[in-house]
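INFO worker-7 received task bundle
INFO bundle size: 2
INFO processing item 0
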Amino acid sequence: MEVKVSWNGPSGMSFRAQTGSGHLVAMDGAPEGGGHNLAPRPMEMVLVGTGGCTAYDVVLILKRGREDVRGCDVTLQAERAETDPKVFTRINFHFVVTGKNLKHAAVERAIHLSHDKYCSATIMMAKTATITTSFEIVEA
């Protein structure tokens, strides 16, 4: 896996990234750090990737378990250390899983399997952050 990150130039702190799969992603800094707030911050992108990784796992595990899953949203609320390096110290993942007759135990199991076994991003984050999860099931 490879990505290339390039600074957009001396007028600010914006960057562009090209992923190995050919996609472009913009990132920018906060105004107080020289950015213009035109795109997500790099650390927000770390959370985005982590949320995407675990949501992907949860949906895949439920589908493989023949659950009738129709939607999956995950909201990550994170805290960072106050001093450098400002690593994530706490992250809560709140899942809202929508489907027909979803079993509570199946959703709980999918989340635990993702966080304990399959989601590389969450497992890396757990090296510095306390990870908590919660979920709710919405009937489709």
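INFO item 0 finished
INFO processing item 1
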Amino acid sequence: MSTEPDRRLIKLGETDETVADVAEDIRGRDVRDSSGNDIGKIGELLIDADERKVRFLEVESGGFLGMGKDTTLIPVDAITSITEDDVRIGPSRDQVAGAPSYDPALVAEPDHYAATVSYYGFMPFWSVGYRYPDYPHYA
């Protein structure tokens, strides 16, 4: 009898878990595209319920004093480099702006983030043959 994997996503900050090495916790870092354009800041890391691996960055942009802020999900697969100050991603700022809308109430729903993975052109983490990126140690 085979059981379906639990594909729910959980915000790391809403669990008792932490990043193993505090220096590798990228929450609060700026996100920039490959041209150096500002995308926003990482507000939260979303982990899967089964393997407890980071699957998405919850990136916040715009707004003032927490008002009018936009939030988007970016697959961890999009990361190209990480420094002490920022996280670089492959997709452009325009591509991120056109991503499927983010609904925090639906973050645990596989169909909600499956559309985001598909939009960015990455293999879903629940697919056979998926290889987890070398997060957070990139070339």
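INFO item 1 finished
INFO post-check item 1: The first helix runs from residue 93 to 97.
INFO post-check item 1: Helices lie at 93-97, 110-120.
INFO worker-7 idle
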